[in-house]
Specification:
single chain; alpha/beta; Rossmann fold; 2 domains; seven-stranded parallel beta sheet; six-stranded parallel beta sheet; elongated; binds ligand GMT
């Protein structure tokens, strides 16, 4: 198949999944075209069958806002014509589903492209739960979801949220997120561990884009409570609007010297490989790809019981889940994991097995492929 994949290049789960999907589909013999404003950070080196098309959005003094939606729709039309795309797969509804819809309408009227490509939209989370349901966007987002030829969501929870918040009645197929399990595994990096912690200290880690929904101040709170019981360090990986709040909370709680702010990192699995527990006290999480990456590296996750996280983590089996406001409960689970080696081994092993049984690319990518075939076969 000739497949166009539209995604954001900024660090975030939807761009990661879109890039990994593109790479795996190309390796399986498809011709894949990634369209984005910049090279997505996980796209990697040249690979046969995989090409990148930059979306340029010109500025003009008359415009106070860049018109990304228009330039993206324009680029989709051009790539679809040149490469004879069968599928346009939009990752993240806003505004990618709208650009794909617009491009398909233009192509449908073109004598050069008698059979326009089919549009598939994958909903990732905040495109519904935070932004899409906002009255400023809800009408256009709902319309473009209804108008897509196929729609997928990364969890049952996100599917329900979409149906409820946007009153969508059409079929939404749930296809969970996935990892390249050959890459995402615990690696031996002893020198890295000694850079952060003494032998008697344990390491907690948090990876995110430091947006309010991630509650980075709560990460610091849980860590500070843990430190009262266990000598530990915290790796804060990522950057974003709440970085200042995290730094300030660490100072206020007297743990600044134990917290390492590492900024954005392309490769997280070496850092996960030296960590003992992953903290994810998010207010909302449609899936929690960061948690899945930790589990693949045998790092038990202590997280909020919200959104799709219970579909990824089973409490007291493959990790621990607590109400988002229950920071004491989270700290207790962290302390238990860091002081009870048998418990840690049980949870870490079960987490890794779950990833391998349910969330590896070789299991999930064929499901996307079959869904493409199904949508192409429909009138
Ligand atoms: O979490 C974010 O702020 C970014 C967002 C994205 O588009 O990258 O993440 C969402 O999509 C990920 C990939 O499907 C999911 O793993 C995340 O759980 C989801 N984030 C939220 O629902 C908050």
């Amino acid at each position: 198949m000739n497949i166009g994949i539209i995604c954001y290049a900024s660090i975030g789960g939807s761009g990661v999944i879109a890039s990994e999907l593109g790479k795996t589909l190309a390796a399986r013999g498809h011709r894949v075209h990634i369209l984005s404003s910049d090279t997505p950070f996980r796209l990697g080196d040249y690979q046969p069958g995989l090409s990148f098309h930059r979306v340029e959005t010109p500025t003009y003094p008359l415009f106070r806002e860049p018109h990304y939606l228009l330039s993206l729709a324009n680029k989709i039309v051009q790539v679809a014509r040149a490469e004879r795309l069968d599928i346009i797969h939009a990752h993240y509804a806003i505004p990618h589903a709208t650009a794909a819809y617009l491009a398909r309408q233009i192509l449908a009227l073109s004598p050069l492209h008698p059979v326009p490509p089919k549009v598939i939209t994958t909903l990732h989370g905040t495109d519904i739960t935070l932004l899409g349901s906002d009255p400023s966007y809800s009408e256009t987002v709902a319309f473009c979801i209804e108008q897509s030829d196929g729609v997928t969501a990364v969890s049952e929870s996100l599917k329900r949220d979409t149906q409820r918040e946007l009153r969508i009645e059409r079929e939404i197929r749930v296809i969970p997120n996935f990892l390249d399990c050959s890459v995402h595994r615990r690696v031996d990096v002893p020198d890295l561990r000694t850079r952060f912690a003494r032998d008697d200290e344990r390491i907690a880690i948090h990876v995110s884009n430091f947006r309010p929904v991630k509650r980075v101040a709560a990460v610091i709170e849980v860590f500070a409570r843990t430190c009262r019981e266990v000598p530990a360090r915290l790796l804060m990986v990522g950057d974003g609007p709440d970085m200042g709040e995290a730094v300030q909370r660490a100072r206020a709680l007297g743990v600044t010297d134990k917290v390492h702010f590492l900024g954005e990192q392309d490769q997280v699995f070496p850092l996960l490989s030296v960590s003992d527990v992953f903290l994810l006290p998010s207010a909302q999480e449609s899936f929690g790809l960061a948690a899945l990456e930790a589990m693949a590296c045998e790092v038990p996750v202590v997280a909020s019981r919200v959104g799709g996280l219970p579909e990824v983590i089973t409490h007291d089996d493959t990790g621990f889940l607590h109400a988002p406001e229950d920071l004491d409960g989270m700290a207790q689970s962290v302390v238990m994991l860091l002081t009870d080696d048998r418990l840690h081994r049980r949870i870490a092993g079960a987490a890794r097995r779950t990833v391998h049984q349910r969330f590896c690319d070789e299991k999930i990518v064929p499901i996307y492929e079959a869904y493409y075939e199904e949508i192409l076969a429909r009138d």
